[in-house]
Every structure is written in C-alpha cells, then in structure tokens.
Amino acid sequence: MEDGRTFVFLQPGGTEVLKQCRAEFYHALEGKFQCTAEIHNLEDGAASSFSRSKAPIVPEIVYNKQISKNMKLSVWKDDLTTHKVDAVVNAANENLSHGAGLALALCQAGGRMIQDQSYDIIKQYGKVPTGNVVETLAGNLPCKMILHAVGPYVSPSRTRTELAKASYLLQKTIWNILTKANFDDLQSVAIPAISSGIFNFPLLKCADIIVNTVKDFSEKRKPEARILEVRLVNNDDPSVRQMQRACSQTLGPGDPLPIQNQVNVPTRSPFPSLDLGSMTLYLKKGAIEMETTDVIVDTVGGDLKLSKGQVSCALLNNAGQNMQQEIKSIKRGYAHEGEILATSGWKLSCKEVYHIVCDGTGGPDMILKVALKECLRKAIADGYKSISFPALGTGNLGLPKDKVSQSMTRTVMEFSKTYTGPKMQIFFVIFPKDAETLKAFEKEIDFNSRKLQSGQTSRSTNDKSPSLHDSPELRKSPCIEVFAPSSEALREAKSWSYRILNPTLTCLKIYNNNIMHLSQKDHEKLMFLQNRFNVIITEFFKEGRGGIIINGGQVSVSCAALEVEAMLCQVQEDFAQSEEKEMLGNLDDLGQGQQIERMSNKLYQKILLNDWESKDKMKIFAKHGLNIVKVEKIENPSLKEIFVLNCKRIQAKPKQLYQCVNTQFCDPICRVGFQREYAPPKEQKYGAGIYFTSDLTKARFFWPENEDEYAYYIEAQVLTGNDKLGSSDLIVPPPNGTDPLVRYDSVTNGRDIHVIFNGQQAYPEFLITCKKQDNATYC
Question: Which value, to the nearest 10 degrees, does the dihedral of the CA atoms of residues 498, 501, 507, 510 take?
C-alpha cells in the first residue's frame, strides 16, 4: 500500500500546462482529493507561485532607496498575504473574479468578504477597465485595504504593436495605484509584478516599467505630501531579481539595508531548519503572539489562569479576555497535568491556540515529549498544516535550555519518521532577548542537520516514499510531489494528475453537476477562458447529468480544463459553506444549535473502523462481489440532529440504503449531506431526486461509470416514509390525496430503488471504499 506521498513526473506538455495554470492545479487537487503538492525543477514561467502547500517565506528586503524627500522605494521577497503595509495591490482581472494566483491567495487569507465586495463593485459599476484601480476592505489580512489593479493582458504570440499598447496600459496601472495611495493618504503600499504572470507580460520589461513609473511619480509628487514607501513585493526569486535589477539600473545603488536583512542567502531562513520529508522544522526568532501559523502552542497551570506565564500572558494581551473566558468554559475547575485545551485564536493571527496544562507534577518528559507529540497529532487530526511552539518549560518550570532544545527537536524528528500526510510546517519560536535559549536551539538543529546530510539519521523503514535526493532523475526532472491524507486519496490524485497533465486530447468532457451553481461572473470567466486559451467551451445538461465540454489544442484543452476544475471546486466549496450556514441557522431557530459542537476545525469527522469492527460489512459486500478496502464511520452532529427532527416529522422507520458516488463528492456528502447534484444515476426514470438502492449488486451498475481508482459507497439511513411509484417527470413527490400540499415522502420502483427529494431525509452513516474489478462496471 502506498503511503501519503508520491511523485508524478512531468512530460513536456505537462510542464507547459503547469507553467500557465499552477495555482489552478493546486486548487483543484485540494478541492477534489484534499491533497496538497509541491512542484520541483520547474521554472515559474507564467505560473503563479501562490499555494497553500509551500513553506512560509521569511520576509527579506533586498533593495532600499530614498528616491525623494517624501518617497522611498524598496524590493522585498515575501508573501503578500502576510506582508504588513497600509495597502496590498492585487493583480485583478476586469471582472474582479479572484479565482486563481495571488487574487485567490488574498481571498483565502482575507476571507469571503473580499470577493463579495468585489462582486458588489462589478454589479454597481460594471467591469473595471484595464489600467484602473478599485479598493476593497482587507478582511483578515494584516493591511488596511486591498487595491485591485487591472493590468494589461498580452497574447503568448504578441506583436510589437500589442506589446507597446500593453506597456502604456501597465504604466497607467502603476500610476493609478500610486495616485490612489496618495489620495488615501497611505504611508506604505505593496505592489507585485502586475501582468507578468498569467497575463503574459514580459517580466524584465514589467520590472523596468514599474520602477520608472515610481521614479516619475516621485518627481511630480507635491513636496508637502505625506511620506510614502512603495514596496515591490513578490514571493518568487525571478521577480525579486528583476525588480532589484531594474532599481539598481534606474536609481543606482541602494541605501544600506537594515542589519537583520543583510543575509546573502535569499532562498533560506536566517535561522537553521530541518527538512524531515513531509515535515519541515524551522527555528525562528520572534514574539510567538505575532505568529500567523494555524496553531500556536501555550502552557498554562492547572488553574487555567493565562495571566501567570510570560507566553500565556503575551497571548492573552493580544487575543483579549475572550480567550480566558473560553478556556474557563471548556474546563470547569482544576485541569489535570498533560491535558490539551484548544481555544479560538480570537484577535491573534492563528486559527486556534493549544493550551498544554502543566503544573510541574508530570516531570520534563511530559511536556517535552508526550504533550508535544499530542499537539502534533491533534493539529494533524484537525486538518492544520502549520504550528508554532515556544521553548517549552524554560519559563516558570526552569528546565535546562540545552535539554529543552534537544528533547523538543528530537521528539519532532522521531514523530516525522511515521508521518506521511500533507506537508506540515513546525516552528520553534524563541523570544528575541533570550539569546541563551536561541543559541541552544541553533546548536541542536545544526547538529541534526549535519547528521541528516551525512546520512547518519535515516527515515523509518516503513517510509517507502522516494526523496528528491534519492536519484539524479529526481533531482533534475520536473515533477510534482503529492501529499495526501490517505493512500486511497493519493492514488486518486496521482491518477487524475497524470490524466490532466499529459495532454493528448483535443476534446475533453468534465461531468460535474456543480455547473448548476455557476454565477453570472463564473460564466463570464468561461468566456474569458475561451479567448485566453483559444478553445471552445460548451455547457451541457441531459437526463440529470451536467458538465462542460472543451475543444481545442491539446495543451490549451488541458489548461482550460484545470481552470474549469478549479472553478467548480470553488463553486462546490461556496455551496457547502452556504449549506453549513443554513443548517446551523435552522438548528439555532429550533433551539438545537447550542447542542452542536465542532469536531476539530470541521463540522464532521470520519472514523476509520478496524477489520474486526467492519467484518460484518465485508461479508455482506463480498456476497455481491465487492472487496472492501476500508470502512469509515461518519460523525456529523448537525446533520444527525436535522435527520432526527425529520424522523419525528415523518414518523417512519428509516431504511438502510446505499448510494455510489465519485471520490470528489465523498467529503461534501459527509459535510452537508446528500444533494441531487452529487450522485445522479444513469437515468432518472423515477424523478429528478436523490437516488438510493437496497441492492448492492445493482449499485455497481445503476450509477454512471467514472475514472476513479476505487468505488465509493455511502451506507445511509433513509426516511422513505409513505412512497409511491415514481416517474421521470417528477421534480417533487406526487400529492398524497386531494390536497396538493400533502405529498408522499418518496417514490420508488416498487422493489429496490428509492428516491427522496429532500436531502435532510437521509443521514450518511458509513463511507465504504472498495476495490474496482477489471471485469466489472462501477459507478
């Protein structure tokens, strides 16, 4: 069985696709399979380097110059989603549809309000002309506002005339950004390499135009204007180098850099780090309360008073008193040594804070080994990808700093040997004034780094994943390193990646009923994609099944397909969030909302059953020629509560039925329940509803074929209630009697097919993954 990591090697066609649609590949991979990826040995080209899977960037300034009395220009390598300035510039399209690249990254980090406000602007004023700039609030980003600048697009086979026109428009765009910053009285603005990505504008010329426009603006700016710092910020080395070059050539040598930024290794952290395969351990000097990782770890006494320890007090001061109130509400009375209590981050930049209860009675191993491992396990279970630890036990407990550094580092290394999930970043954050502790950690990580490089420390014998250092082929060949939460997800992601990144088709059909939820803006984007990739995109919907057909050149079809897949994943996520919100709202209205607790950072979880627990199901499925790979029990308190309420309404005993689904819709069903769009049958003979069967043999053939590597069955409790024979023209159950408002609860074929028209009448109990047989047709 494969573990949670593998490599997909790229052919020339695949590299060309990824150069144009890297961000869309990341988005689709995560949306369809809950997988992340890193791309190796592939130059950025026109691709966006923004993705959730890459390691955090340490902010680095490479050029700095006072270009006038009241204006400064600097060049940075940093992530714009975490860069701290008054305004961040987004490279937007004219529809302000933030579905890829930097725009998507800013929306994911800043929250849905950014896209919502952008759509409001389009609704009120129409498309944003090229060269113009509009602003929205920044949501959860550390800046005050976002300036959405629409830069020019040039075709890959651009002419001199087209490039000259685009150059003028890019100059206009930068000028309008600076004018806007001036008008809003901003002190700092961060500008990326606008138009140089998917808009195909040459990077070298882009850098020259940006720098020259900033220089011209500074010369025409009023002397009494407020001091403005313009930062040219990018997260990829080629863009940073070109901005630095353009500044040096246009403005001359820069002013002396701040001491902390005089590091001549631009792609590395100024502190040591350890590459541990699926985990990377970073050492960082800073204030832990300022961390932006998913999780921050804290230690607290048994009385749960956050105002006592230095770290917990700093977190409390920044998070606010709500954190103290929450931890007290979680645990009444005195907490026991070793307990880990999770609270919201509140006003901190993290999602959650894990508070380790530590009063010194458990000894140093409890906090330095047991609790640290438990925090890692919990973060992984909660779906997080980054976590920050302080130097545990060096404060009130007074543990020796060298012992702490050694134990914490080696505990993470030991844990990493058996971890094969998505890429995880771990930070040890040391307070800047604690030089002794910092020195101890630097020494320990440097020691282990040398051991890893010399091969003295080997990975677990159970870890069969290849490493980039295993062979010259891996070190040089363009490839994708895929990280998955399970071996099944890994196999699905790998198979899909090979299909989409080996362009051999001039016509591609994507089946996905989420097209029914496409907005007007989404349809406008489809028209934009037609022009961008010179393809023909056609939507279809027939007999309950919909999707998109793409015709064109091989590489163009694959590029457009990735864009469409990413768009549909976003539509699916938006729909799921809307359903979750409505579901919780309905429970609140009924007075049931307070009974629902989140499981980790989700509303549901899947619990893997062992062979003994699932042996009865294995026997049942085996009788129908189905070989079970794994059985997962679905726990979703919100869905369960709504189902119970429907049981009371219908007053009937539920039936145990089955539905066969595509891998992409397994998690959405676990999350928000059954929907008509998720598993339409081959033919809707009995109505346009949600289909189930009691016959597992029939389930193998009733739903359409797909390209999944496994067959996925949902075992559900379904309230069929009063039913009647169905017909293809039904969109709701037929009336039960003379009153048209009183209807049957479901329809049937009279034997083994049951159709409901309201997803709340079914609760998904088990997700059952089966092997596909070569001589059988599966859903």
Answer: 70
Top mean pLDDT of 200-204, 266-270, 603-607, 710-714 is at: 710-714
698 is written with which tokens?
A: 């029939």
User: How many angstroms separate the CA atoms of 680 and 515, rounded?
Assistant: 14
Which of 129-133, 154-158, 371-375 tops mean pLDDT? 129-133
Adjacent-strand bridge partners of 546:
541
| Nearest one of 46, 59, 30 to 423, comparing CA atoms | 30
Three-class DSSP category at 763:
strand
Amino acid in the structure at residue 158: R
Q: Closest Cα partner for 143 from 91, 187, 89, 86?
A: 86
Among 47, 113, 45, 54, residue whose Cα is nearest residue 82: 54
Ramachandran region of residue 360, left (φ > 0), alpha (ψ -120 to 50) or beta?
left
CB 116, CB 96: distance < 8 Å? no
Find how far residue 82's CA is from the centre of its chain: 16
Q: What is the token pair recorded at 512?
A: 């996905």
pLDDT digits (tens, 9 = 90+) for 23-48: 788 888 888 998 877 777 776 443 33
As a residue count, the chain comes to 779
Structure tokens that stand for 428 in this block: 């040890």
Distant-in-sequence, close-in-space partners of 394: CB < 8 Å, separation ≥ 6: 401, 404, 434, 437
Q: Which pLDDT tens digit goes with each residue over 377-433?
A: 888 888 888 899 999 888 777 788 988 999 999 999 988 887 877 778 899 999 878
Answer yes or no: are the C-beta atoms of 235 and 80 closer than 8 Å: yes
- pLDDT of residue 144 exceeding 70: yes
Tell me the C-alpha distance between 461 and 695, whole Å: 43
Is the pTM higher than 0.70?
Answer: no
Q: Which residue has the tokens 């985990």?
A: 279
Residues contacting residue 84 through CB under 8 Å, at least 6 positions apart: 142, 143
CA-CA distance, 321 to 393, in Å (whole number)? 24
Are the CB atoms for 9 and 478 separated by under 8 Å?
yes
Beta bridge partners of 341: 355
- Tally of helices (H runs) and strands (E runs) in the chain: 20, 29
How far apart CA 521 and CA 513 sit, in angstroms, is 18
Measured distance CA(673)–CA(765) in Å, rounded: 10
Instruction: Round to whole Å and give the CA distance between 677 and 421.
Output: 30
**Distance between terminal CA atoms of the chain?**
23
Task: Look at the block and give the residue holding tokens 């645990």.
Answer: 331
Q: Which DSSP string corresponds to 629-668?
A: EEEEEEE-HHHHHHHHHHHHHHT-PPEEEEEEE-GGGHHH
Q: What is the pLDDT of residues 655-669, one digit of tens each?
A: 999 999 999 999 999
